[in-house]
Amino acid sequence: MASVSRRRGQAASGTVPETNRLKLGYIPLADAAPLVVALERGYFRAEGLAVTLSAEPSWANIRDKIQLGALDAAHMLAPMPMAATLGIDGRTTPMLTALTLNLNGNAITVSNSLNQRMHELAPEAMAAQPTSAQALAAVIAERQRRGEPPLRLATVYPLATHNYQLRYWLGSAGIDPDSDVELRVVPPPLVATHLEAGWIDGYCVGEPWNSVAVDSGLGHTLVTSYELWNNGQEKVLGVTADWAQQFPNTHRALLRAVLRACRWLDQRSHRSEAAELLADGGYIEASASTLARGLTGAFEYSPSRRRGDIEDMLVFHRYAANFPWRSHGLWYATQMARWGHLPEGTDLNALVHQCVRPDLFRQAAGDLGLACPEEDMKTEGVHGRDWLLETDGAVIPMGRDQFFDGVRFDPWDIGGYLSGLPVSGTSAATG
Q1: What's the pLDDT score for residue 308?
Q2: What mean pLDDT is predicted for residues 160-185?
Q3: In the predicted model, what is the mean pLDDT of residues 409-427?
Q4: Same domain, yes or no, for 176 and 203?
Q5: DSSP state letters, 27-79
Q6: Which residues pair with 153 in a beta bridge?
């Protein structure tokens, strides 16, 4: 079966991989599942690729090993290729992504004591759907009046999707994440341990590490990234620009294999099997039942608060999830500019055009006969219900894309978008 699939893929593309031995890095998270599935189900092998997966302890390890050539490709945070290309994240190393691994999958979790105080001070904000950051603002104001130190909140990396999702939520309540709280960086597998030790008061992280805290009785989840931005981009498959140029056929085969894994994962009946594969295979040190919370959508915010199944808690393929929308990249770039994380005068459009490559995705998807969006960008935050994207010869079912605050992101008017945001940094950027 694998040999037949391999012949079909290479025949469709007319390519043979220039090199077939690859080492791919990943962080132990549920959204690393496409790489694990592609290995365990033989999708890499079917493309003529001999792949080794390397579990890395932190995103800094992923960054360094990609930049040094110790990894060929990696499970990567969406802003990382842009940060590396600009040289604001380690050494200057042009990187790109031609495939999004998943949508959604993160959440904000706080300690039991902080959760209780938020309920006491702002019960209406805590009862809101989704939970309003106004409850946290009330606690912060109380601590400031009493002269107490700021709350310590962790994200997994300075230039992470989690960082910008947390900042967006905080900013909506007038909280300045650079002065009203203390932001720390903690690798994903360690956040629950740090919460238990009292070293942090909360965090934003990907699954299963929110469910680990809830299952262990250490904390309460307040809001998921799906609620903050319905079907927002999360992880990507990242490579250096030099590697993609040197091994274009290998890259294309890699994209095809991961695409097939993502398609398999988005069949609901396969999610529990994927959880067992990640746990029993030793890829993530969490139980299959805990992993299944995020993968199947049976997510629990706390022992007493379960909102029912969140079908789109993690999306791996449907809704054109794997397409690398440049509008997704631009949203993250605008957040980086908003908080002063980009050099003065950075041309956001040029940066995203260089680092986000839908043209390469279309080649690999075409090999598999998959329909693709014809445009590289779309307005984000428009759809409050499922909708249809019409293409030449196909209609692609799409999901919601609203932001929790109702703001729309027009990628053709970056300046207007940035000028309308509250609590911003001082970095200037151009569109």
Answers
A1: 59
A2: 97
A3: 81
A4: yes
A5: -SSGGGHHHHHHHHTTHHHHTT-EEEEEE-SSHHHHHHHHHHTS-SEEEEETT
A6: 183, 202
**Are residues 55 and 120 located together in one domain of the fold?**
no
CA–CA separation, 54 and 130 (whole Å): 36
Mean predicted confidence (pLDDT) in 132-145: 98
**Which CA distances in Å does 57 have to 10, 51, 63, 178, 370?**
35, 19, 11, 26, 34
How crowded is residue 175: how many other Cβ atoms within 10 Å of its Cβ? 21
Rounded distance between C-alpha atoms, residue 340 and residue 358, angstroms: 27
pLDDT at 154: 98
- In the DSSP assignment, the letter for residue 134 is H
Give the count of domains, the chain: 2
How far does CA 284 lie from the centroid of its chain?
Answer: 17
Q: Which residues pair with 203 in a beta bridge?
A: 109, 154
Q: Taking all residues of the chain, what is their mean pLDDT, rounded to a whole number?
A: 93
Task: State which of 231, 246, 279 marks the end of a domain.
Answer: 231
Residue 99 falls inside a structural domain: yes
For residue 428, pLDDT beyond 50: no
pLDDT at 247 over 90: yes
8 Å CB contact between 352 and 326 = yes
Q: What is the C-alpha to C-alpha distance for residues 111 and 139, in angstroms, rounded to an integer?
A: 13
SS3 160: coil
117 in the same domain as 76: no
Going by C-alpha positions, the residue among 97, 93, 45 that lies closest to residue 69 is: 93
Q: How far apart are CA 79 and CA 33, in angstroms?
A: 20
pLDDT in tens, 250-260: 999 999 999 99
For residue 42, pLDDT over 50 is answered with yes
Q: Look up tokens 């079912």; give the residue.
A: 397
Q: If 0-12 CB within 10 Å is exposed, 13-18 middle and 19+ buried, where does residue 218 land? A: middle
Please tell me the distance from the alpha carbon of residue 31 to that of residue 142, in angstroms, as a whole number: 37
**Average pLDDT of the segment spanning 277-296:** 95
Q: What is the pLDDT of residue 426?
A: 43
The DSSP H or E segment spanning 203 is strand 202-206
| pLDDT the model gives residue 310 | 83
Task: Give the residue numbers spanning the domain of 269.
Answer: 2-103+232-300+311-367
d(CA 293, CA 296): 6
Taking residues 2-9, report their average pLDDT: 42
